[in-house]
Amino acid sequence: MNLPKHKYGRRLSYGDYLYNFFATLTGLTIFNWEFLKQAFLPPYEISEVKKHMTELGVKTLGIVSITGFIIGLVLAMQSQPVMQRFGAGDFLPGMVSLSVVRELGPVITALIFAGRVSSGIGAELGSMRVTEQIDAMEVSAINPFKYLVVTRVIATTMILPILTIYVIIIAIMGAYIAIIIVEPMSFQYYQNSVVQSIEFGDFIPGVAKTFVFGYIVGLVGSYKGYSAEGGTEGVGRASTTSVVLASLLILVFDMVLVKITLWLWPTL
Predict the structure, then answer these.
(1) What are 127-185's pLDDT values in tens digits?
(2) Buried b (16+ CB within 10 A) or exposed e, 57-66
(3) Domain enclosing residue 245, as ranges
(4) Mean pLDDT of 199-221
């Protein structure tokens, strides 16, 4: 099997891939530790955090709205015939809402958010790095890490749970539309079924883990962009790899957080 070539023409070996993997994990761990140290030190760039939250939320609102609506619509359309076959059509609103609240809503929203935001952060900070704007900030006695990285990571951590709640609502509405296309059902009955199916232990863990997902998206995008090198090619590489790494870490941490949730709430 032919392996892809290194940027200088040499083909990468499996040892190179392994080295790059552990080097990335090490660099990301050090970067994370630097963030934890800087995040609690003044000055606190509150206005910059608010600006990033607004920008990231508005830029992602359209795609997550469409995604959430389609999630609910398709899930209900696929599940409705199966539920009716077993005489459980009345449980369809509860099944769809639980699926969206506990897993589909948080994870898919986080993956969409990673694709839209992590790549943007990586490209933006990568461009600033290769054009030496970050170096200029350091010379001007400005802390670029706190101004560029800390504010973005805090913003992504805070905005993703809000987007997730919005997507959950849109997905539940999409499911209702899919149901009434096939059979009549009053909105009041659908609403009552959804409310009776969702408990505190379903909603809180599903939304709470999106704080972790948002932190991952911001941290990975900032790390890849802040450490970019190699001109415009390096900027593109930072943008691409930030999406891949953030999506992978979201799935891995989701598996861990689901296990922790089941351990804390064994009745779920």
Answers:
(1) 888 888 888 887 877 788 888 899 999 999 999 999 999 999 999 999 999 888 888 88
(2) beebeeebee
(3) 30-35+45-264
(4) 89
131 domain residue, yes or no = yes
CA distance 158 to 5: 40
CA distance 219 to 255: 19
Average pLDDT, the chain: 85
What type of residue sits at position 178? Answer: A
In the DSSP assignment, the letter for residue 91 is G
**What is the distance between the alpha carbons of residues 219 and 119, in angstroms, rounded to a whole number?**
12
3-class DSSP state for residue 2? coil
pLDDT at 97 over 80: yes
Close Cβ partners of 122 (under 8 Å, ≥ 6 residues apart) = 220, 221, 222, 224, 225, 228, 235, 238, 239, 241, 242, 243
Residue 106: inside a domain, yes or no?
yes
Amino acid at 216: I
Q: What is the pLDDT of residues 23-41, one digit of tens each?
A: 888 888 999 999 998 888 8
Query: H or E segment at 189?
Result: helix 187-197
Residue 174 identity (one-letter amino acid): G
Residue 259 burial (CB count, 10 A)? 10
- Write down the pLDDT at residue 209: 92
Question: Torsions phi, psi of 189, nearest 5?
Answer: -65, -40
CB 225 within 8 A of CB 121: yes
* Token pair recorded at residue 32: 């994370």
The C-alpha angle 74, 210, 260, rounded to 5 degrees, equals: 100
Answer yes or no: is 9 within a domain.
no
Closest Cα to residue 161, out of 64, 88, 232, 241?
A: 64
Q: Is 14 contained in some domain?
A: no
Q: Residue type at 242?
A: S
